[in-house]
């Protein structure tokens, strides 16, 4: 593995490049796009995020995304270190507001909740986050749609793939791959102490998390659960944030996942400092289901409910591979190496199913190690803000 020096940053390049009509997307030279010249108000977001013609899945046509050779694309990742939302968070918001709010307003806008309803749901289910939420809204200039967006109540749908596994020995460890479209990745690693407890994880939706750890020794990660459709509930990144902000033990995390409504189906794997772990299957309108199985990919249970979806993302193949690694009683470090190889590692970036990063959390040590092929980045709760360029 090779490493590079980090350069502190307080400004952000725009991370989204899925910004023109689908026609001709494969022919665009994305690296030459003049982002400053884009007329954001004119972007046809409804067209971009609409289902493919003839699709019955209700999902965007990710195969229309820009194609590019593996190992040819440089991406800058930003490290935010800010106890409370401030200059760094505001810079992130300003860089991404057009893309995020355009996405939020896409589709049937009547499906988005009123500000009053969205704030009421956040206060009812996650009151501990309300002071941080109010600070963020203030930093947006009290933007009405930003305030709705930041509650993450009844958001537009999104469904990443992913693989994850938890290890108890020699110390509690959670390993995961995040598989998604690079053009829709926020590209932030965020350390905060919103309520006094340090939390570090991979950012999404400005203050949500895709995975992470806290200084109480808890680590959490998510994968899409494979069940299509959506319902009333929160986007999963804010739930992951809430777990890490308020929970220290497996039982506390279990209680949160059992009571908070989520908008789509997910597998959430949690491990605490005792080394015990569980995977919860959560979905809108049904009770959470808990399993002590330490590995998860993109289906629910042993036999997928929706075989075609599972086959598309090779979910069973990846889970069987993880189970095989567990049966060999490998150490976490050697298992981590497997996450950079097939079948766990995917290069289907143009189809929204490429591995954007692999990460191994050791929460009792306060260490997260991010890996790409030929690169790694060791993160602790106490590191400074920085940026790093990686190659996909």
Key words describing this protein structure:
single chain; nine-stranded mixed beta sheet; disordered N terminus; 10 helices; 392 residues; alpha+beta; seven-stranded antiparallel beta sheet
Written description of the protein model:
The protein has 392 residues and is an alpha+beta fold. Helix content is 25%, strand content 23%. α3 runs parallel beside α5 and α6 packs antiparallel against α7 (250-259). The protein is globular, with a radius of gyration of 19 Å.
Shape estimate: globular
Overall SS class: alpha+beta
Largest sheet: 9 strands, mixed
Our Rg estimate from Cα atoms comes to 19 Å
Q: Strand arrangement, largest sheet?
A: 10-9-8-7-6-5-4-1-16
What's a quick, concise take on this entry?
25% of the residues lie in helices and 23% in strands. With 392 residues, the chain is α+β, with helices and mostly antiparallel strands.
Please outline the helices and strands.
Elements: H1 45-48, E1 74-81, H2 87-105, H3 115-125, H4 130-139, H5 144-151, E2 163-167, E3 173-180, E4 188-192, E5 199-204, E6 208-214, E7 219-224, H6 236-246, H7 250-259, E8 266-271, E9 277-282, E10 289-291, E11 295-296, H8 307-312, H9 315-327, H10 332-338, E12 347-348, E13 353-362, E14 367-372, E15 375-380, E16 386-391
Helix pairs in contact: 3-5, 6-7
